[in-house]
Amino acid sequence: MLKNKSIVSIDDVSEPEITEVFSVADRMLNALELGKKLEILSGKIMATLFYEPSTRTRLSFESSMQRLGGSVISVSDVKSSSVAKGETLADTIRMAESYSDVIVIRHPLEGAARLASKFSSKPVINAGDGSGQHPTQTLLDLYTMRKYFGKIDGLKIAMVGDLRYGRTVHSLLLALSKFNVEVTLISPQILKMPEHIKERIGKNIKVVSRENFDENLDAFDVFYITRIQKERFTDQNEYNSVIGLYSVDAGTVAKMKKNAIIMHPLPRIDEIKPEVDYLPNAAYFKQAFYGIPVRMALLSMILEA
Amino acid sequence: METTLKVSKIKDGTVIDHVPAGKALRVVSILKIENNPDVSTTIAMRVQSDKLGRKDVIKVENKYLNRDDLDRISLIAPDATISIVNNYQIKEKFTVKLTKTVVGILRCPNQGCITNVKEPVNSEFSVISEKPLVLRCFYCERNMSEKEVIAQL
Question: Rounded to two decimals, what is the model's pTM?
Answer without folding.
Answer: 0.89
